[in-house]
Amino acid sequence: MSEVCCEVAPAVAEAEGKKKGAAECDAGSAAARRRRMEIRRLRLAAERDGAEETSRKRRKVVVEEEASTDEESSVEIEPARFGVTSVCGRRRDMEDAVSIQPDLLPGHHFFGVFDGHGCSHVATSCGERMHEIVAEEARTSSASNSDDADHWTRVMERSFARMDAEAVSSRTTISAATPAPTCRCELQLPKCDHVGSTAVVAVLGPRHLIISNCGDSRAVLCRGGAAVPLSADHKPDRPDELARIQAAGGRVIFWDGARVFGVLAMSRAIGDSYLKPYVVADPEVRVLERRDGEDEFLILASDGLWDVVSNEVACNVVRACVRGAGRRRRRGEGRASPTSNLSPTQSSGSGSGSGSGSSSGEEAGNDCVGGSGSGAGSESDEEIGEVDRACAEASILLTKLAIARQSSDNVSVVVVNLRRRRPEILTRPLDPRTDPPS
Amino acid sequence: MTATSRPQHAAHANGTLAPPTDGAETFAKFFECWILQQSRDLDALRAAAAASPEDDAALRRLVDRVLGHYEHYYRAKSAAASDDVLPMFAPSWISATETLYLWCGGWRPTAALQLLYSKSGAQLEAQLPAFLDGGDLHDGDLGGLSADQLQAADQLQRRTIRSEREIDEAAASAQESLATVKMVELSAGGGAAEEGMEREMDAKAEGMRRVLEMADGLRMDTLRAVVALLRPAQAVHFLVAAAELHLSVHDFGRRKDEAK
């Protein structure tokens, strides 16, 4: 129910979070949001008791009024709708981290996949900190044209640089501020210099999709039936990367693939201070205009997936999951699908619509399988919810496929639903004959 | 089966196995009877996997019976190890090939998870073309692992890796204890130290027996936990894969050994 009301609510900004310090930001805004959600739920429940159809129309008005007192922003909010799966797979150490932060900024959701190497702690701190840094940078440089491509490029470049600086200095800062790390290397010298992480980050705004990448994790957009890679893997033998490394005085040696100084099989990474300046943390940033009607899904994944599953197959699998969900609904089977058995703890922890706290990203970073950004809503939500469930199913299926194909790495997959829910869909009575958008 | 030429005198008609008596010789005999039991179990499991639609309760009984046979194996092994642990770390009843894959006196527990992933992967790949063509995935086998099951497997794997590492540490301590000051003195003392040596080595072997006990415990726990996260029909597929892998590697190794 809470999910439904959020569909039509205008932006609810983290007004309280803005005023507080960065450390309190998450807790404050999450609590505030939860309170607001509770108020809305109560109103909705009250209205449902009354006349159904009229209340549906009124509902929007009520929520809008309420939200506008919270925040002056007029950006239309859209809940984060995604599936996420992150498993150890066939490796003995888990070095991937995933961070999903619905409503990180008004109307903007944050998705990040970080694939660590050497140890897990740089990836872990990326999972814990990157979104906070991005939020800070976006707020401090907040221009009037907040969707501007240059603005976002600057924000992401600065964020990656700060994240890298934190990762490199994490030995001192982390040990002072937090309890003993649980990772393998336990931040011992000098190994710690040999630890790093990829970072592929997507910020999904109302009109734009911002992809920032550093390393060999990848973002792929399913758009109009095609698989469009939105990031180019930073491999040391990529001609421009090779030229950059050599210009800096570095060497790329083929030793089980192309490696910087025969060591690191990627040319950019967060951390890895001993390979600076040859391995850099500068992201490549792309700012895309969203195309409604064409944009289907965004897939973010570590190379545990991409090593064994092509961009095209991945997109086909997601589409097949959506088609399958539509077929099952038309047959009246509802949720009875092999992979629809979503873990309740995971699915409840995410999605702005559920009004849950922003700790979801941390949960996701630790261990999660098949978390869904949006659980099943009311019956009128069936068709919409099924696409969201299909995203969760797709993230599971892609992960299983990677494991099936003997991927030797950890596997982390995030599937983000890019189809917009239009308010009219919510008020339209459910027509079981209607095909899902495909 | 090349490995099972001896008479199966220890197997009762009802399918349960007689407890072994003393010594490595006896355990070797027990093992061969157990191998026979496992191949009978495999036949039953294969038949159940092929038959559909399944009766979950009947499948559950079959799965429990097969698990019971594994438990019986580890009870027998434990009893034999308390009698004499030495043969358990130099087993005569397995082939040279199999000794390559021993971890603390048996199979590596995380191999059960790898086996689950491999069998599940093969069954998923078999379904994938039809699924991409617009068909449905069916969940009758391991190709249809749900989100909860994948999560449970992932958690189990991480837990099992941690337990393996703990046991590795215990094994390290037990093995490093060979080179204590006492042992240096005893080993320098010649024949006069015979009795002291006996006492010391007994104590150290007891340390290794405890390692074996922990490792066998983890093996059985992992097997049980994998089965527990599966539905009965899926568990049947997993137990088929486990028995097939064990029996075929055992057979392969025996043939290799005989060819020498």
From TrEMBL, chain A:
SUPFAM superfamilies per UniProt: PP2C-like
Transmembrane segments: none
Cofactor section: Mg(2+); Mn(2+)
Class in the EC hierarchy, top level: hydrolase
InterPro entries: PP2C, PP2C_BS, PPM-type-like_dom_sf, PPM-type_phosphatase-like_dom
Compositional bias annotation for Polar residues: 337-346
Organism: Lolium multiflorum (Italian ryegrass)
Domain PPM-type phosphatase: 81-418
Lineage of the organism: Eukaryota, Viridiplantae, Streptophyta, Embryophyta, Tracheophyta
Keywords noted in UniProt: Hydrolase, Magnesium, Manganese, Metal-binding, Protein phosphatase
Region annotation (Disordered) ranges: 328-385
The protein's name: protein-serine/threonine phosphatase
TrEMBL record, chain B:
A GO MF label: sequence-specific DNA binding
A Pfam family of this chain: DOG1
GO biological process: DNA-templated transcription
Family annotation (InterPro entries): Seed_Dev/Stress_Resp_Reg, TGA_domain
Span of domain DOG1: 24-259
Name this protein carries in UniProt: DOG1 domain-containing protein
